[in-house]
Amino acid sequence: MVIHAAILGRPLDLLRYRGDSSLAPGDLVRVPLGTQCVPACVVSRKEGDEEDLKKVEEVIVPRLFPQQLLDLAEHISSQHLGFLGEALGLILPRDIMMPPKRRIKEPRIEKDQRRLKMRTDENRILQTFKKSSKPMLVHSSADYTGLVVELVRDVMGKGKEALLIFPDEPGLARFYERTSPYMPLALYHSEMGQGERRRVWHGVRQGLLPLVAGLRSAVLLPFTNPGLIVLADEESDSHRVRSHHLHYNARDLAVFRAEKEGARVLLFSHAPSLETSHKARSGKLAWIEHRVAQHGKALIVDMKKDGEATILSKTLLEEIKAARERGMQALLLLNRLGLAARLLCLDCGHVPTCPTCDMPFKFVGKGAALVCPICHNEIPAPEHCSECGGARWQSLSFGLESLDRELKRCFPHDRLLKITAEHRPIIEDAQQAEIIYGTIAVLEYLPPKVQVAALLSWDAERSRADFRAAERAFRNVAYLRRILTSSTHSRLVVQTFRPRNRLLLWALRGDYESFFQSEVRRRRELGYPPYRRLLLFEAGRRNVWDAEKLLEAIKHDGAEALGPYRGRRGRSRILVKIRRDLEPADLIDARTLLRSGWQAEVDPVEIL
């Protein structure tokens, strides 16, 4: 019998081995590869010439991969320019490959488990969800614990499984704390110990753990009879998984699995992504919006009048001091600018932007030309603003170090807590701090005692060199607006040189529809998602091909390439826009990509 096997975690085509007739697709086996014996998954078998084929050494775990996971791995590899073995390696990491030695216990379900009363809006969403067969998007900042508990109980009562996916650990921890009295919930994420992750993975495979809540990789758990997948904050960039070769979005895989395996999908969002909103408005998703009443106030600080040369305006300092006198907390968000500063007019807040690709020009230094980070278009450094004629310019370049010094000077006796992507403290630390500050990661922490939230530089947020800059700026304000529902003392402070910017006013009012209609027109004109897909190539450490050879290889009538340009770590990048009826593999296949030495990311969330 000729066995076709995928080597787990390796960028290799299917390999052929000799095996007996008892082997079947989904078996985890050990096979020879060079001088080693490595784990592999049996993908198919057939009668054929076995001469000169090496033999399958042993069966590690029979039928480890159900057909659903094989289909999922095939989808991941084909959509993201990878190999089947790489995708199977993501689904079954090495550290959870062998079943646990101790017996896996089923969670005990109490017969008198507490009921959770649902609000009127939750009941309305529940009835709409039951009547529709489509995936559903719920656009609201409200808490829907009661709705989720009711849906999970209904699904499990029918003998099916449920999966709940969160973008970050603080959100998962808060959900577990709220729901553990109401349903038997298992957790799954990369921060857990190896033994516990192994127990959950194999418990799901054996049907002993029908309800799991986890982070991104939980979407790959081996459920065989899923009935419901719930995904929180569908718009979050944190749902994106970046592995060595393959990148995927847990949201997109959740929708794919549900459609393929007959489960229902419920997406929650504070400010839906443009792609998801576009699907909802085109009828591919059911969609419901619920506004939450606000009690606090939003304040726009014009930095031209109130703190032009400082990070913390007088207005913000007064609000922080007032909150501290009441024993409450403050949370400050600062966009770290990344690769280069931007030039901003102090009189009107205008940021010079490339007319070709709508990206803000990089400001390298005084007297130097402004350069587009994508298409390399250059213009002389302007003396006067093209919008208002002013001649006062400022570089948007201050960062966390400057903020750190300013906070220690103004609040020397308060407990400060800095949060970044590299430093995420536990929830208890955030609850005990008095002033929380940092980059986008601070939005994962919103303790109930936060009464002042501030976006320190709206202009830097809005002027990021990324086609999603407007969407991210709107979304961040939507996240911070959540505190305004807490009390009449709550304040949201936005510091800006453009106090009448319409995008900012829409964000503070929660006017998502106006934002969507404006942004979707711009995306259509520029050829960005949701109207086209993106394919981002980055030069590897040892790229064999130069940029010109790669551009020649991926040339296609339905593709438009931008670059090469310099991205993170100074590596060359090429951004390709492709028609939605094309697949990435229509431009280049996984084997050719591997040979070129370049790496590719399909549908990236960032392009610099």
Main sheet characteristics: 7 strands, parallel
Global structural class: alpha/beta
CATH architecture of the largest domain: 3-Layer(aba) Sandwich
Provide a count of the helices.
17
What are the SSEs and their pairings?
Blueprint: E1 2-7, E2 15-18, E3 28-33, E4 36-46, E5 58-61, H1 67-79, H2 84-91, H3 120-131, E6 136-139, H4 145-157, E7 161-165, H5 169-179, E8 186-188, H6 194-205, E9 211-214, E10 226-231, E11 240-242, E12 247-249, H7 250-261, E13 264-269, H8 274-281, E14 286-289, E15 297-302, H9 314-325, E16 329-333, E17 342-345, E18 370-371, E19 378-379, E20 393-396, H10 400-410, E21 416-419, H11 427-432, E22 435-438, E23 450-455, H12 458-462, H13 469-480, E24 491-496, H14 502-509, H15 512-526, E25 532-539, H16 547-553, E26 559-566, E27 572-579, H17 590-596, E28 598-602
Parallel strand pairs: 6-13, 6-14, 7-9, 7-10, 8-9, 10-13, 15-24, 16-22, 16-23, 21-22, 23-24
Antiparallel strand pairs: 1-2, 1-4, 3-4, 3-5, 11-12, 17-20, 18-19, 25-27, 25-28, 26-27
Helix pairs in contact: 1-2, 13-14
What does this 3D model show about the protein?
The strands form seven sheets. A seven-stranded parallel beta sheet has the order 8-9-7-10-13-6-14, with helices on both faces. A six-stranded parallel beta sheet has the order 15-24-23-16-22-21, sandwiched between helices. Strands 2-1-4-3-5 form a five-stranded antiparallel beta sheet. The mean pLDDT is 89. The chain is an alpha/beta fold. Helix 1 crosses helix 2 and helix 13 (469-480) runs parallel beside helix 14 (502-509). It has four domains: 2-96, GIY-YIG endonuclease (3-Layer(aba) Sandwich); 120-289, P-loop containing nucleotide triphosphate hydrolases (Rossmann fold, 3-Layer(aba) Sandwich); 297-500, 3-Layer(aba) Sandwich (Rossmann fold), CATH 3.40.50; 531-602, Alpha-Beta Plaits. It is globular.
